Amino acid sequence: MSMSLSPPEHYRQILQRLTASGAPFAVEERDIEGRRFRLYTNAPSTLGEALDSGRAYGKRTFIHYQGEKISFEEYFQQAEAIAHQLHHLLDVNPGEHVVIAMRNYPEWMIAFTAIVMARAVPVAINSWGKAEELEWVLADTKARVVFCDTERHLALQAALKQLNATAILVRAQSDVASAEHTLLWPDLLVAGHAQPALDLAPPDSEEQAIMLYTSGTTGHPHGVMTRHRQICQALADFDCTGAAMGEVNGDILMAALARGCDFSTLLAVPLFHVSGCHALFLRCLRGGQRIVMMYKWDAREAVRLIAEQQINVISVAPFMVMQLLEEPSFATIDRSTVISIGSGGSALPLMLPDLIEQLCPEQLPGCGYGATETNAAAVSMNGHLFRYRSEAAGLISPIIDVELRTEEGQSVATGGIGEIWVYGPTVSDGYWQQPEHTASSFRDGWFRSGDLGQFDDEGYLHIVGRIKEQIIRAGENIAPLAIEDHLREHPAVNDVAVFGLPHDKLGEEVAVRIVTTAGSTCETQELRNWLSERIAHFKVPAHWQIGSEPLPRNASGKVLKKQLMEATLKTITKT
């Protein structure tokens, strides 16, 4: 790193060189459908073209899952076999929706690539949903084919018949040979291997490429429509910002490479979310990096895999990083194999950077901010950039514009707090068959995130909280995130959620749900006193719940605060 420049200045200097005309990540301005964008000139034109770069890695291992190993070569062979069957056996047409509804399995990724090869549109839906939710999404997409595992297959039995859809069942755990509207993955694979690879004309870059349903916290999820251009620009952005950060952190990376690291990545977040699909799966496929998959998140099991598989890259939700670092066995293993440890999707707990420094002082800590609607692109940072301003979310991508605006849509000056609006070639056009929600969240190419942010004087974006989570007590705005950070510093607090409850005179009151650390006990008054020494009295919660039950979270790791509020109101009513 240049000693004469600060990390953000050094980073921007490198980006200026990498994105100049004729450079590997040259950026140009272009008008698309009446809007002006900055785009990477050399980005792939279609998702299929982007995925094909993974073919160069041949017999190198791509996926490691519970003792199974699949090379890049085998991966593409299986995807080609399934793609052939989609096109010829099931008559899937270009542009048609094909749903993936399963937990994280190797077949999830193979199915995704096969659907793209067949020129159809992979639709990833939340596998945590109940039968009614899965049925609703299947009907909403009008899909005739759905890839699913046994649990989702059982939940969708009625919908398959009603919608005349066909399930392709992976890893069957019961006798389903005679099940209606069902084909078995192994049978398709064997039959498809005997057929030649598909040779279809590529789609236009402005056609729909994928659709991911937002995990959401209330109501039906929204299908986020993404064009080939949008996802390809996001993937190119990962490459560009990654290359620039690699130069900023050259000293750390050279030391890691000297230890024999090969950038093996732990996959422990859902593939139906952009953090799992875009930032991990697609990035690793294109970059020749090995993925070690977890059946489900468990901090102790993650530690075992990190040590056994010599995992180099860990990218999970903030609460998962906390659990990993606080798992006692993590401190006992050789952590020198870990190059990068980071997270995104929500603001980091204030104590997390210090915990990372204690246990991983030679690694690249990092974080970022993006959304399904932006294809995960917006701001990011790691290494020296992170250590320089660890309380922030990151620095803006070279092809993205981020503005903070008031409720009336007016720009907020540096240092002020406003809603985060995002614009760029990676931003979705809106939600599938949801014109009202599209109109409220997208304005003239800008995406309204619903998140509150603040820029500091060096261009770092700080996440302050969610607009809907702001508590207004007697006219005073209260940010739950700040209260949560103070409570996490208490040794008896393992996890915490602060939320508002309606009050007939004050408007709202502050409530909190505390999850205690294992073996700890804590009284309400002790925590009241703890907070009273650190925050204004009107911010101290009026309602307290303390216990050992984990907080309810959605698939992206965000706490379901509406659910907590409703449960608390029921408790108050009963008492």
Question: How does the SSE layout of this entry go?
Answer:
Layout: H1 7-18, E1 27-32, E2 35-40, H2 47-52, E3 61-65, E4 68-71, H3 72-89, E5 97-101, H4 106-117, E6 121-124, H5 131-141, E7 145-148, H6 150-155, H7 157-163, E8 166-169, E9 182-184, H8 185-193, E10 208-213, E11 223-227, H9 228-248, H10 250-258, E12 265-267, H11 274-287, E13 291-293, H12 299-309, E14 313-316, H13 318-326, E15 340-344, H14 352-359, E16 364-369, E17 379-382, H15 384-388, E18 395-396, E19 401-405, E20 417-423, E21 430-431, H16 435-441, E22 442-443, E23 446-455, E24 461-466, E25 471-473, E26 476-478, H17 480-488, E27 493-503, E28 507-516, H18 524-532, E29 543-547, H19 561-574
Parallel strand pairs: 3-13, 5-6, 5-7, 6-10, 7-8, 8-9, 12-13, 12-14, 14-15, 15-16, 28-29
Antiparallel strand pairs: 1-2, 3-4, 10-11, 11-21, 16-17, 17-18, 19-20, 20-23, 22-23, 23-24, 25-26, 27-28
Helix pairs in contact: 1-9, 3-4, 3-8, 9-11, 13-14
Q: Could you describe the 3D structure shown?
A:
With about 575 residues, the protein is α/β, with parallel strands linked by helices. It has 3 domains: about 5-40 and about 225-465, Rossmann fold; about 70-220, 3-Layer(aba) Sandwich (Rossmann fold); about 470-575, 2-Layer Sandwich (GMP Synthetase, Chain A, domain 3). The protein is built from 19 helices and 29 strands. The strands form 6 sheets. Strands 4-3-13-12-14-15-16-17-18 form a 9-stranded mixed sheet, with helices on both faces. Strands 9-8-7-5-6-10-11-21 form an 8-stranded mixed sheet, sandwiched between helices. Strands 19, 20, 22, 23 and 24 form a 5-stranded antiparallel sheet that branches. The radius of gyration is 24 Å and the shape is globular. The model has no long low-confidence stretch (mean pLDDT about 90).
